Amino acid sequence: xxQSMNHIHVLLKYFEAIIKSVLKELWAVGKGGSQVSxxxxxxxxxxxxxxxxxxxxxxxxxxxxxxxxxxxxxxTQKSEKSPKKGKxxxxxxxxxxxxLTDSYQRQPHQGELxxxxxxxxxxxxxxxxxxxxxEKVFLQALQSExxxxxAVSVEVQVYCLNQGSETSLAIVSMLIKHCRTHLLQFELWxxxxxxxxxxxxxxxxxxxxxxxxxxxxxxxxxxRPSTVVSAVLPVLRKALWKELSGVFQDTEASHEITVKLQxxxxxxxxxxxxxxxxxxxxxxxxxxxxxxNESWTVADAISRVLEDSEELHSWRRSLLSACMRGLAxxxxxxxxxxxxxxERPVLLxxxxxxxxxEEVDPDDWxxxxxxxxxxxxxxxxxxxVLNTAIQLLYKKESSISQRLVKLSKLHMMVTHHSLxxxxxxxxxxxxxxNIQTREALVDILLTVxxxxxxxxxxxxxxxxxxAYGATLSTVDQKILLLLQLYEKNNQSLINSRAFRFWVIxxxxxxxxxxxxxxxxxxxxxxxxxxxxxCTLSTYKLKHALAQVVLDVQDLGLLLYTxxxxxxxxxxxxxxxxxxxxxxxxxxxxxVQESLYRDESVKNLNDLYDPCFLLQLFSELTRPxxxxxxxxxxxxxxxxxTVAALSSYDSNMRAAAYFVLASFRSHLEGARFRExxxxxxxxxxxxxxxxxxxxxxxxxxxxxxxxxxxxxxxxEEHMYxxxxxxxxxxxxxxxxxxxxxxxxxxxxxxxxxxxxxxxxRLLGEGLRDKHCYQLYDYQRIFHVILSFFNSPLxxxxxxNHILEVLQNAARVxxxxxxxxxxxxxxxxxxxxxxxxxxxxxxLNRIISLVHTLWLTNAGSKRESKKPQENRKLLPIQLxxxxxxxxxxxxxxxxxxxxxxxxxxxxxxxxxxxxxxxLVVRAFKEMSRFTVNDSVLSNKDILLLLHKWGIMEKxxxxxxxxxxxxQKYQIKELLKNIKEKSKSQTSSHHxxxxxxxxxxxxxxxxxxxxxxxxxxxxxxxxxVYWEPVFPALPTKHPEELLxxxxxxxxxxxxxxxxxxIVTKWLVKSMVEHSLNMQxxxxxxxxxxxxxxxxxxxxxxxxxxxxxxxxxxxxxxRVCEASSGAVEHLKELCLFSSIMLHLMDAQGLTNNSCHExxxxxxxxxxxxxxxxxxxxxxFLTSVYIGDIWLxxxxxxxxxxxxxxxxxxxxxxxxxxxxxxxxxxEETIVPLCRTLFSAALGH
Length: 1239
Known about the structure:
Elements: H1 12-30, H2 42-50, H3 56-67, H4 71-74, E1 75-77, E2 87-89, H5 91-106, H6 116-129, H7 132-144, H8 154-163, H9 166-178, H10 180-190, H11 195-201, H12 203-217, H13 226-245, H14 255-266, H15 274-287, H16 295-305, H17 312-333, H18 340-357, H19 362-375, H20 380-393, H21 407-415, H22 420-424, H23 432-451, H24 461-467, H25 474-488, H26 497-501, H27 513-520, E3 526-528, E4 532-534, H28 538-552, H29 555-563, E5 573-578, E6 581-586, H30 610-620, H31 629-634, H32 637-643, H33 650-669, H34 675-688, H35 698-710, H36 717-727, H37 740-744, H38 751-765, H39 769-777, H40 780-788, H41 795-809, H42 812-820, H43 824-832, H44 839-861, H45 875-889, H46 898-924, H47 937-950, H48 954-967, H49 970-985, H50 990-1005, H51 1007-1021, H52 1039-1070, H53 1075-1089, H54 1093-1100, H55 1103-1120, H56 1127-1144, H57 1152-1164, H58 1168-1186, H59 1193-1205, H60 1225-1238
Antiparallel strand pairs: 1-2, 3-4, 5-6
């Protein structure tokens, strides 16, 4: 009634009194001061009646106290009159079960266990009560904390197996999955009498458990005797085979069927057995059913069984046939592409089987091709597999190809499809999927044309030219290669009218050739069939062709292509002269290999193919053609041609010079307003050339292109300025940036425009070492570095200067000389000393430092040469980078660009790692080094504080803040106050608040970037060495004061080491495990933490940290179980755990010294099996003692089980045995067993 009226708080005092009295009674029972009375006390009666109304927090203390009670207090022996002997719950046990089950029903996902005693008590209660609700509580506890599987006794597993309910068997699954002793116990249970009959009777219930066992079985084979492991499979096969072999009769897919198939795949008999033969007869028919992908698990297992058999090839042929039929059924039954997740795995299998068999049934092949092209014409995955299949099946030496559908028919099926034109031609709205489909179709056409050149027809050229976008994208390059194959197969493009009317198109549109010719041909009649035929006069045709080409060019794309020209087109030009046209083909070595390399260009669709454009321009500028010179300049065709003069390829430059000469002759006869200025510009450029086929620097070509564009804009200020400069010079000095000082130091009213123009030119023009030398010769870097800190330098100019430096940093020589000759890192430090830097500027500086480091240390860092032969950067240079990065730490903010934050942490960890390498090399050469430790306590705490803000870790922020206040770390406190001020002031700045919110949303989305930052931060911390100061002894009168200072420093170092250890362990427990970082962290713990008892004690006082250390240890054990390369890390971790156990005094048991010796020998052991077994036994012991057991019960149980399983009963001749090395565990277990008995 009170609860319905929301007045339950009236009874709070009464509830508190009940709890106090119950706790008092339980403490008395726990100490053994009083016996368990069969009669309920008043307080227990009140608890049973009213606990449903008490809060979870109030009941938690009672529950945990009851769990700590001894076993004799929770259970009692059944009376002699009872039909079943054994234990039953006592009064306290009944109340505890009631509390636990009710708590689980209230909060099923918030169970909490704190130590081994709790889980042991739960196991005892569950065994005695046979309560299904308590089983659910126990299962939920194990699922939330799997490490407690080590604390569950083997008797609990036996009880659960005998119980046989779904929940109890799920408990056994958790136990065998996370504990090797329980895995061994389960195997011995399977080998006991009458189990076979029980499994056969309860197959459905036991299958999930057996599936888990079979998945774990092969991973930890060295932890059990091979005789036991090999004896289990025949028992399971005999018990389950009849039920499992009939699984293919079920038509509907379900989870139960999937489990059956997984179990069946692990229980297959030998290749000679009748059961396997029957299964092989049934399986292909099952694979043909649509959507039955799970059956392929069994097919793969049969292939492994037949691996050394002569029947393997015929089996694969039947699988290939079933795979093709199954795909055809899927395509015919599901005509849309909604089931791609089901089809993709089958397509991958088809590709794999084709590569192994290389022969198919002609009918199956035709059915698949027909259904696939009919219903999956736009499916990139199908088209790729089809292309692979054609390559494999239609080889010239293949006899099967004569019986398959002819290539000419297959080619017709592809090209005459209703979707062919829409898939091949471009549209404005096309997405990435259509581009991939087009590329896959072009691949098929390429393959077919190579295998059967007779399919080439002139009618195809119109479509291929319509699909060609003249860009550097892979698909356009493949189309170009396809056109070349048509040329080689006597389908001349020159004779094709389609080519004569074909124009370069905007990549995102398809200007129809008919409409273009109609628009420019003066009303001439045009007809379009498979090939294009038009009747135009020669004069009008030439004029129309040139005008159309220039009209439909993408201006933005031409400008971008000209700007990004770096001479890095790694192609050779193959020039063939034919009447009236120059054909330039790219020798296409590797289609998949990019023909152009520039890190700033993410999409090659954004760049025109210069090889094609130059030959196009050479055609347009022939003497008999009329060229719209104004248009040629306006669309940047002239700029792109000039940019080609910076190419490293002499043929490319020669082609560009040819086009420029032809254009100049047309320009002389042209009549438009800017003709004289453009002609004078070309004369000035020509007069500056002192040798034949001279290569320009990219900066100069960009300048010329910009000036040419500027000539068409007389209304702008730069028009007058540039014309004045050109008129005062007869030629361009190719050793300098033209007009730099006049523009940079201009005193006109529009001086900002002029400076902005020349700085933008410098930034976009610096591409290689020749550009850098040009700037350095003119002392441009000295000028812009000095100007950056001037009050006259606005934000725009600063950004342009940083862009110049960023591009220079990518050039190896420039990156080194800017630091050595211009003190660039010192210059950056000076900028960072400013009171506040905007995010945009800070992002640019981080990117600059990152690029400088990568360019200077990239090749040296990744060198695989021996240590003595490697060239290392000077340690002074590395230290400079380190000082800059430490200064940057103070300015790091959470709303910075995520990519730049990732660059910062990556650079920081890389510099520290490289410095450690240099110091190690110096020590090996006996050279003197100073300041081995370069990161101070304040730096580390500041890093942690910044990371806490970035990751929104309030607990970490609070810990660092408390530490800063306790030791009065001024820099850190200042940073914390600034953060608080910025948060307060942000409420009064609407624009900044919105920007911060947007940045925060972006940060939340970039989880992968944050993960990279975390891994790099982990690496940064492990390069920090806590330094504990020594007391000076020279002046006794100052000893006391020095001692106080030293004590404070020791305390701060100790607290810093503790908080770093806490973060490192927590980070690796809560996130994906990176074994390289784990190895570095373990070595840091061994070298920097364990030698200092003060830090060790601080670490061990934190129970949460202790639990996390054990969780990490368990994760490393699981990661190392199947990987020999990680055993070294596990040995190190085990020795660290034993050291921490010594520090806690957990050594008073029968096996400690023996296990410690075992761990020490494992470190130096060369035999992999012995090493693995020694580390495993050590880990079992550590799991026992760390979780609070007085004796290593689980280790002793494991030892007993192994010793008992190696008697003569299991070692008969019929048992399969593995290598003798895997039996290493037996003698070691006997030694441990003897030690335990002796104790």
